[in-house]
Amino acid sequence: MGINLPILWTIIIAFGLMMYVVMDGFDLGIGILFPFIRDRHDRDTMVNTVAPVWDGNETWLVLGGAGLFAAFPLAYSVLLSALYLPLVLMLVGLICRGVSFEFRFKADEAHRRFWDVAFAAGSYVATFSQGVALGAFINGFHVTGPSYQGGALDCLTPFSLFTGVGLLVAYALLGSTWLIIKTEGALQHRMIVLARPITVALLVGIGIVSLWTPLAHPQIASRWFSFPNIIFFAPVPLLTLATTLGILYALRRDPHAVPFGLALFLLFLGYSGLAISLFPNIIPPSVSLWDAAAPPQSMGFTLVGALFIIPIVLAYTAWSYHVFRGKVRAGEGYH
Amino acid sequence: MFGLTALQLARIQFGFTVSFHIIFPAITIGLASYLVVLEALWLWKKNPVFRELRHFWAQIFAINFAMGVVSGIVMAYQFGTNWSYFSNYAGGVVGPLLTYEVLSAFFLEAGFLGVMLFGWNRVGPGLHFFATLMVAAGTLISATWILASNSWMQTPQGYAIVGGRIVPVDWLKVIFNPSFPYRLVHMTLAAYLATALFVGAAGAWHLLKGRDTPAVRTMFSMAMWMLLIVAPIQIEAGDQHGLNTLKYQPAKVAAIEGHWLNAPGQSVPLILFGWPDMQDARTLDEVDVPHLGSLILTHSWNGPIPGLDDFPPADRPDSTVIFWTFRVMVGLGFLMALLGFVGLWLRWRGEIYRARPFLYFAVAMGPAGLVAIVAGWITTEIGRQPWVVYNVMRTADAVSNHSVVELSISLVLFIVLYFAVFGTGVGYMLKLVAKGPSGAPEAEPGQFPRPARPLSGAPDANPLPHGEG
Ligand code: HDD
Ligand code: HEM
Ligand code: HEM
Q1: Which residue among B76, B82, B462 places its CB closest to the CB of A66?
Q2: Residues A22 and A267 sit within 8 Å (Cβ to Cβ)
Q3: Three-state SS for B185?
Q4: Residue B465 has what pLDDT?
Q5: Secondary structure letter of residue B104 according to DSSP
Q6: A155 and A133 in contact (C-beta within 8 Å)?
Q7: Is B66:A99 a contact under the CB 8 Å cutoff?
Q8: What are the φ/ψ torsions at residue B24 (nearest 5 degrees)?
Q9: What residue owns the CA closest to ligand 2's atom 37?
Q10: Burial of B243 (0-12, 13-18, 19+ CB in 10 A)
Q11: How confident is the model at residue A332 (pLDDT cuts 50, 70, 90)?
């Protein structure tokens, strides 16, 4: 067989989720930073830096879900029902913050505070739930045939709660470094100050997850620490360390886009670490890509569209970011 | 909860969330096209009234769109969380259709939305118009894919069952399944009608309040023309849709008509009102018109149609519900046409902006389109029961194995959240509508007005100073 459809689809879905983490990560991060910024105009500026693009960012999440549905229906159905609790909470969070973009400007003074709280709380809940889902995913699921056998609360473990907090920190880093690019003056300065402890916290978090995972899962330990893998994979932790130091260094010297770029790279490294640990399982610990794959007719049909349309989507997304480039000033927003 | 089974709770949850969702897309689809028309008219005629209207409806569109998006994301995940056996069994067909919708429609809408709402002075008028056009195209493409998917579940074809799951064999047959063209036309027209009624009610309301500006007149007049043309087409389209359903889902039509038994050689009456009783298998207290049922559905004086008695009780959809939801939809459809015709008559007499009873009628009909849409979907979906994929998979086999407790909690959560959030949002929308078009903003011809509010061009309680740049 010419092309390996399940592998291609894994790459596409992984790319979609990566795009989601990268793009919605910084706009969720803005909600996470809300409690640290009290001034109303600063908050408006923060929201205005993402207002024209947040919907597109969130669409990558929908693509991840739909792509999984199309290419790996078994994984879609098992994972989503196993992760029922965090996903419902994530949706609740996304609803609260999604509408707040519009509502906080349309509400009168009395309601405004409420939508600020909804925006921040929604961002926290959505991010934390995504992190819990991620942790539960790494932990794996008890599956027989096409059905999930565990209970609703199985996804809540110390590890998954920890990854929930970890993701909050990660998105906060993306949010603060994004705002360093998009804002100036006091607000920008505040973000530079905030970004430092967040970076350190993230490094610690990554360290803990990297130890915890192989300790809890011998399979993953042998993947990383057996020879010759250890040589191939060694760059991942080393680069992680170097990148973190790079962010801290850049934050010291009138930073612009560098911290954000490095933060993205950091997330990418974490992501590839995850891929190394779990491949080729799509429902860890036992169901592989090939077990869960849709019929080739479904994968092939959708692949044509994906390969053709995704580049176009990327092009006009880039154009839209280009239209709204530059600093956002207080009280100004987009005009 | 209330003695409901997990299956019933999952169905209520899906029905509740999707019924809320469809309200927003209906207005999104209609308003997006309306904004294209307004912006085109403005570019062409340079009449500031069109710019003012475009500006006004764009603010309302922005709120509505946000609610459409967040309620839609819930839908996309619910297939997996609540209907996992369905997703696994039919994912090979439904998944790719949804993916195409994301790729070709959702990204298009979202990608150009920013420029359409906030890009007034950042791009030229031509590019801005293009962005608006892309958003509108996105909404229609979205409707096409999701209706292909839903229609396939109603009238499946082009598939085979291999290894315990559905495998698509012929994609053209899957997409262009027998009920798809009818459903696409019917739903698109429904979205346009619902929007026309909404816009018309806003216009009528301002006219009643004595705010008789050119902008208010223009939007009211446009809405009434739209109704006049589209409502009769919709009635014809609905009739054709019914004939198609009779062919492919006769049990649904029997339930819609409350029709149980064909006595040999006798015609089918049209039951106007009555109470279909699923236990007794008959329709109580019926008021009917002899022969009319045969006439409408078979175009002959005595033509028989299958009755519910022809189907085993386990395969009968709930006639009590859909008998009524169908009549609500059709009744409202005729009222819409009536509104259009009365409008034409008053226009001809030169009284369309002044006839108060007529204006009250238009205000009252404001929500009618949305009510008809929800009623129509309930008819369609409950009429498909007990199947989730018609004659292929039963709803009872589709549901995830969550416990009653989990489903009850999440259902209550959704209900509270939806009413609080979307209720407030609709409140904000209506408040904006009540403010009305605000008089022509300052901007030179060829340039779009600077929105008073940076975020979405909406006037807010305390506008910030205009920035430069
Ligand atoms: C007739 C049209 C229609 C119908 C039947 C549905 N939708 Fe919808 N949906 C739209 C028309 C639409 C739209 C016009 O494209 C929306 C509305 C507002 C918006 O932002 O896009 C949308 C938004 C929307 C979104 C958010 C898109 C984004 O991120 O931008 C999702 C994920 C869904 N829908 C999914 C669904 C699912 C799973 C449905 C079925 C159960 C469904 N929709 C029924
Ligand atoms: C947006 C318009 C839609 C509305 C208003 C709508 C309405 C409903 C309602 C009221 C139910 C509950 C039926 C019951 O409890 O008996 C339902 C069920 C369902 N619908 Fe739809 N529906 C819509 C679109 C769709 C689409 C596009 C799909 C598929 C792609 C779909 C798939 C389903 C499924 C899987 C169920 C659950 C199984 C069932 O109870 O039938 N629906 N829908
Ligand atoms: C007045 C004449 C009308 C007739 C005869 C009619 C007929 C029908 C029929 C037979 C169905 C069910 C099709 C099926 O499930 O297979 C249906 C569904 C539906 N109707 Fe109507 N209809 C009419 C008016 C309207 C109006 C005015 C609206 C809304 C503004 C509307 C909105 C809908 C919707 C949203 C559905 C569900 C989607 C679909 O199946 O197409 N209808 N209609």
Answers
A1: B76
A2: yes
A3: helix
A4: 32
A5: I
A6: yes
A7: yes
A8: -75, -50
A9: B11
A10: middle
A11: low
In B278-355, the DSSP E strands lie at 282-289
In a domain, A199, yes or no: yes
Q: List all residues 6 or more positions away from B235 whose beta carbon is below 8 Å from its beta carbon.
A: B333, B334, B337
d(CA A302, CA A280): 21
Residue-wise burial string across A95-111, b where 16 or more C-beta atoms lie within 10 A, e elsewhere? bbbbbbbbbbbbbeeeb
Q: Can you point out the beta strands (E) in chain A?
A: 143-144, 147-148, 281-283, 287-288
Closest residue of A to B95, CA-based? Answer: A70
Is residue B261 scored above 80 in pLDDT? Answer: no
Report how far residue B241's alpha carbon sits from residue A136's, in angstroms, rounded to the nearest whole number. 47
Phi-psi region of A147 (alpha: psi -120 to 50; beta: other; left: phi over 0): beta
Residues linked to residue B282 through DSSP beta bridges, in sequence order:
B277
Say whether A147 sits in a helix, a strand or coil.
Answer: strand
- For B114, the token pair is 């920013």
In degrees, rounded to 5, the angle at the alpha carbon of residue A32 between the alpha carbons of residues A266 and A197 is 55
Question: For the residues B131-149, what does the mean pLDDT come to?
Answer: 94
Please indicate, yes or no, if residue A331 is contained in any of the structural domains: no
| pLDDT interval class at A330 (50, 70, 90) | low
Per the domain annotation, does A329 fall within a domain? no
Helix and strand tally (H, E) in chain A?
14, 4
Shortest-distance Cα residue to atom 13 of ligand 3:
B380
Instruction: Give the separation between CA A102 and CA A105, rounded to whole angstroms.
Output: 6
Give the ligand whose atoms come closest to the C-alpha of residue B97.
Answer: 2
Give the range of the structural domain holding residue A273, as residue numbers without chain letter.
5-323
Q: How far is CA A168 from the centre of its chain?
A: 10
Is residue B157 a contact partner of residue B175, using CB atoms and an 8 Å limit?
no
CB A299 within 8 A of CB A3: no
User: Which residue bears the tokens 């034409």?
Assistant: B344
A330, part of any domain: no
Q: Decide if pLDDT at A335 tops 70.
A: no
Tokens of A155: 């996804």
Q: Span A290-304, mean pLDDT? A: 84
Give the count of domains, chain A: 1
Model confidence, pTM: 0.87
Residue nearest to atom 35 of ligand 2 (CA): B388
Question: What pLDDT was estimated at residue B457?
Answer: 38
Q: Output the ligand 1 site: residues, CB below 6 A.
A: A 55, 58-59, 62; B 18, 21-22, 24-25, 28-29, 65, 68-69, 72-73, 75-76, 105-106, 109-110, 139, 142-143, 146, 187
A248: which 2 tokens?
């801290």
